[in-house]
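Q: Given only this backbone (127 positions), what sequence would you predict?
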């Protein structure tokens, strides 16, 4: 693994961040806000790391998934309260405030999507 700037991934990161921002601002309930947003956020994090790190796709993808699961389980432990952030909208938006099993499924599906796209992209590059 080494540090290396990747223009393609930074563009994807910015596009996904824009989409997530619009979802957070304009959608307060529903499938897109609560599930599709979680699906996209792991793809966003993966693209962010790939913007600066040249390394094994699978290792980076699984690291993002593990981080996402850790944040979700911190929600189960109600982490905002001991940090005295339970009234912070920014903390609730970034860390979340409630545990949902469906979020774990969305994170997993997002990372599976990343792995499939990376595998297909690698096959196209070898043609």
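A: Predicted residues:
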């Amino acid at each position: 693994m080494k540090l290396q700037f990747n223009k393609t991934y930074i563009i994807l990161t910015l596009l996904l961040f824009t989409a997530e921002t619009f979802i957070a601002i304009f959608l307060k309930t529903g499938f897109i806000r609560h599930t599709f947003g979680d699906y996209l956020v792991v793809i966003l994090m993966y693209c962010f790391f790939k913007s600066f790190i040249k390394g094994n796709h699978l290792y980076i993808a699984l690291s993002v998934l593990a981080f996402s699961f850790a944040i979700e389980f911190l929600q189960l432990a109600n982490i905002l309260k001991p940090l005295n952030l339970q009234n912070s909208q920014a903390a609730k938006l970034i860390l979340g405030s409630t545990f949902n099993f469906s979020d774990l499924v969305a994170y997993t599906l997002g990372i599976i999507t990343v792995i499939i796209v990376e595998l297909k992209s690698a096959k196209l590059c070898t043609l």
